[in-house]
Design goal:
The chain contains five helices and no strands. The protein has about 180 residues and is mostly helical. The longest helix has about 30 residues.
Length: about 180
């Protein structure tokens, strides 16, 4: 067990030095991080709206307040989305470099893959619809899902994919080792 006190000034200095060793995010990376943060906050807002009894975006007659399992999932989704918003900013801000690289990348790739794979089946339906090959029209919630909801998920997945790749490249090698 450690008995000597931790020197907070020295620890902070070490973390600042670590952050200074890597290139700062570019303007387009910061814009992408901001877009991903907004994506997450908007989705957290929808989950809060649904948890409070709102029904827009849900199947007709559905309310999360009346469906305990979905209500609990919704309540879990709110802090997860807010955590995702913080992660999006961590991928482009200097303070994000204070966290272990593997942890940040694991979160970024996890978000990216979850969102892309969530939306992928609907993107196939959307491509079939746009190509005029769908048997029958898109109606009601199918229309909302294929044209709005799932493309929104895909947008989030693509934003996090771009952020993960950019962070991975930017933090691969410290600036002083590049040549």
């Amino acid at each position: 067990m450690r008995t000597e006190p931790v020197d907070a000034g020295r620890t902070t200095s070490r973390l600042a030095t670590r952050a200074d060793r890597f290139a700062a995010a570019t303007a387009w990376q910061r814009a992408t991080g901001s877009a991903a943060c907004v994506w997450m906050v908007v989705f957290a807002g929808f989950h809060a709206y649904w948890a409070l009894g709102g029904t827009y975006g849900l199947p007709p007659g559905e309310s999360l307040v009346d469906n305990t399992p979905l209500f609990i999932i919704d309540l879990i989704a709110i802090p997860m989305n807010l955590g995702g918003a913080a992660l999006a900013l961590a991928l482009v801000q200097r303070w994000g470099l204070f966290f272990p690289r593997r942890l940040v990348l694991c979160g970024a790739w996890g978000c990216a893959l979850l969102m892309v794979f969530h939306a992928l089946p609907a993107m196939v339906d959307l491509a079939i619809f746009l190509a005029g090959r769908r048997e029958g029209p898109l109606e009601g919630m199918d229309r909302f899902s294929v044209l709005i909801y799932e493309p929104y998920w895909m947008l989030g997945g693509l934003l996090f994919t771009v952020l993960a790749v950019a962070f991975q490249r930017r933090t691969r090698r410290p600036v002083d080792q590049e040549a």
